[in-house]
């Protein structure tokens, strides 16, 4: 303990007295980390209030693709602060520049609007889809997360007995709102066709993470995204790609660039501004012009902080670096190195595991069998081992989020030595967890399902 930084418990207790649960997001309330207070972050690392440093592979669920406190991004934000402030009227040159670049890079974007979060972007995507079609229903997929708003706050990380029926992640949602959402299995083309056969005339939109990273990494089967494109086009529905995670982290044009499938609307977020709070919604001009930013248009759109000069500057600096430096080459190479190393570790320890991911995203499912395709496959994951070894990683100064099915991320600031340190720490942490028999105390470790919507 130092004078500047009291022990975690003291600071955490202060937080719990004035902040419900001591944290400002339910996804930060992690069993085993109740007293974690972070005091510094730089590059690939963060430091807690005891002075302990961690190599960070959680990376705030993915935004800092360049690493924490990237000097070019922070310099751009500081420069913007010397000339601009939030005025809440008109538009700034930076907003214009950012919109032009987003439309240039992402295939589906003809026009784009900025938001403060990815949740706002997906909310507005579904609102405008309903405005455009006059229809009621939306389709989402088990295991996909599209934010906190009511119509999509269901069926993310569900217990086995709740798969196949509505599984809201929160109470307080009206049952009739949930009734307007159809939940289908990811990668199941026949289920999609059946839903459109029965409900096609009333489906306003299909929203999908093209790669469901909120449950680790489920890669789409060949033909699945094309089937979504075909069915929505055939029935006059709006196809929404939620690329809040895949956008920019996997490619400058997102997964739609990699897959060749162009949706009607795209939502973006986490990697746009390297950790600064910004989201975006863009797509076909005829849909985007339904928003009230066009005078007289019917779909209301507003947000005092939309296009804030600081976050716009951060986004422009981030995109500049992504376009001019070998960011993707670096993080993809480290991702491959980590996946190969972890595969060897689990084989050496004779522990069934599937190490998967894409590019800079990786996850080790503790189960046997082929690479999972659907959420049902993920029910085989050994949750005790998954969470148990991640908790022990922190003892070695390496941090992966100890929550079931959560993915990990590589940044431009990580090095080959960091990757090798993760692999070696995993070997030790898994060996120790096996010796201890995993963990039994899993209450509260899944925080994205199981709420009673009718309470």
From TrEMBL:
Gene3D superfamilies hit by this protein: Aspartate Aminotransferase, domain 1, Type I PLP-dependent aspartate aminotransferase-like (Major domain)
Pfam families: Aminotran_3
Claim: rRNA processing is one of the keywords in the record: no
Biased composition (Basic and acidic residues): 1-16
Keywords: Pyridoxal phosphate
Cofactors that this protein relies on: pyridoxal 5'-phosphate
TM spans (from-to): none
Keyword set includes Heme: no
MF (Gene Ontology): pyridoxal phosphate binding; transaminase activity
Annotated stretches, region: Disordered: 1-23
Family to which this protein belongs: Belongs to the class-III pyridoxal-phosphate-dependent aminotransferase family.
Protein name (record): Glutamate-1-semialdehyde 2,1-aminomutase
């Amino acid at each position: 303990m130092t004078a500047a930084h009291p022990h975690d418990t003291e600071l955490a207790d202060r937080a719990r007295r004035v902040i419900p649960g001591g944290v400002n997001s339910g996804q930060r309330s992690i069993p085993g980390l109740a007293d974690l207070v972070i005091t510094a972050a730089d590059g690939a690392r963060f430091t807690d209030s005891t002075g302990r440093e961690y190599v960070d592979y959680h990376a705030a669920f993915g935004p800092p693709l360049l690493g924490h406190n990237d000097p070019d991004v922070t310099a751009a934000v500081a420069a913007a602060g010397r000339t601009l402030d939030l005025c809440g009227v008109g538009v700034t040159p930076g907003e214009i520049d950012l919109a032009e670049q987003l439309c240039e890079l992402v295939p589906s974007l003809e026009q784009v609007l900025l938001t403060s979060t990815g949740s706002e972007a997906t909310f507005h995507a579904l609102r405008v889809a309903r405005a455009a079609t006059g229809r009621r229903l939306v389709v989402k997929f088990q295991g996909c997360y599209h934010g906190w708003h009511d119509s999509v706050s269901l069926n993310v990380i569900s217990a086995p007995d709740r798969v196949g029926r509505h599984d809201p992640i929160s109470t307080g949602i009206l049952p009739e709102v949930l009734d307007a959402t159809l939940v289908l299995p990811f990668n199941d083309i026949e289920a999609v066709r059946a839903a459109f056969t029965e409900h096609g005339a009333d489906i306003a939109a299909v929203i999908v993470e093209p790669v469901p990273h909120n449950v680790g990494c489920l890669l789409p089967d060949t033909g699945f995204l094309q089937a979504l494109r075909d069915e929505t086009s055939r029935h006059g529905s709006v196809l929404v790609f939620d690329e809040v995670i895949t956008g920019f982290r996997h490619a400058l044009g997102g997964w739609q660039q990699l897959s060749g499938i162009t949706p009607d609307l795209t939502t973006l977020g986490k990697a746009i501004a390297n950790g600064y709070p910004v989201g975006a919604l863009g797509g076909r001009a005829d849909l985007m012009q339904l928003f009230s930013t066009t005078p007289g248009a019917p779909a209301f759109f507003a947000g005092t902080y939309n296009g804030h000069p600081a976050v716009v500057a951060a986004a422009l600096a981030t995109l500049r670096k992504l376009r001019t430096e070998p960011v993707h080459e670096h993080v993809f190479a480290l991702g491959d190195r980590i996946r190969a190393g972890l595969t060897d570790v689990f084989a050496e320890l004779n522990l069934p595991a599937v190490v998967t991911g894409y590019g800079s995203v990786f996850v080790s499912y503790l189960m046997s069998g082929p690479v999972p395709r659907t959420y049902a496959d993920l029910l085989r994951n050994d949750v005790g081992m998954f969470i148990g070894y991640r908790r022990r990683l922190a003892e070695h100064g390496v941090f992966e989020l100890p929550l079931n099915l959560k993915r990990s991320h590589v940044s431009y600031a990580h090095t080959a030595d960091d990757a090798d340190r993760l692999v070696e720490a995993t070997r030790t942490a898994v060996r120790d967890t096996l010796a201890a028999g995993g963990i039994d105390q899993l209450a509260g470790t899944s925080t994205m399902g199981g709420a009673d919507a009718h309470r």
